[in-house]
């Protein structure tokens, strides 16, 4: 057996503790289940998302497209002008 120490904000710990409690687990047992699953699958048991809710690949693609649009895209003087252009293309 080994020991792992982690630092986490109190709010996150409290929320996680509540969720684990509903499953009949304490935080330590919940983390053991998580680490066991990572070891078994050799991967995260969920899709990792950025703070914006995208996968890292989706976010990279959005940034790439935004940079392209800034360099090569059409420019509008107002949101109304952009919306009118979008609606005309339908």
Characterise the protein shown here.
There is one protein chain. By secondary structure, the chain is mainly alpha-helical. It folds into 2 domains: 10-41; 56-88, no CATH class. It is 61% helix and 0% strand. It is elongated, with a radius of gyration of 22 Å.
Which secondary-structure class do the elements indicate? Answer: mainly alpha
Strand content: under 5%
Which oligomeric state applies?
single chain
Count of alpha and pi helical runs: 4
Determine Rg (CA atoms, Å): 22 Å
DSSP strand tally: 0
- Taking all residues together, what is the mean pLDDT? 92
N/C terminus separation: 63 Å
Domain count: 2
Task: Report the biggest beta sheet as strand number plus sense, adding barrel if it closes.
Answer: none
Outline the low-pLDDT stretches: none
Helix percentage range: 55-70%
Q: What is the N-to-C order of secondary-structure elements (H for helix, E for strand)?
A: HHHH
Specify the overall morphology.
Answer: elongated
């Amino acid at each position: 057996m080994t020991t792992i120490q982690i630092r986490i904000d109190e709010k996150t710990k409290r929320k996680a503790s509540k969720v684990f409690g509903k499953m009949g687990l304490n935080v330590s047992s919940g983390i053991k289940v998580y680490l066991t699953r990572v070891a078994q699958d050799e991967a995260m048991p969920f899709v990792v998302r950025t703070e914006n809710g995208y996968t890292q690949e989706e976010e990279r693609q959005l940034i790439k497209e935004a940079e392209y649009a800034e360099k090569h895209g059409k420019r509008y003087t107002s949101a109304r002008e952009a919306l009118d252009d979008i609606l005309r293309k339908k």
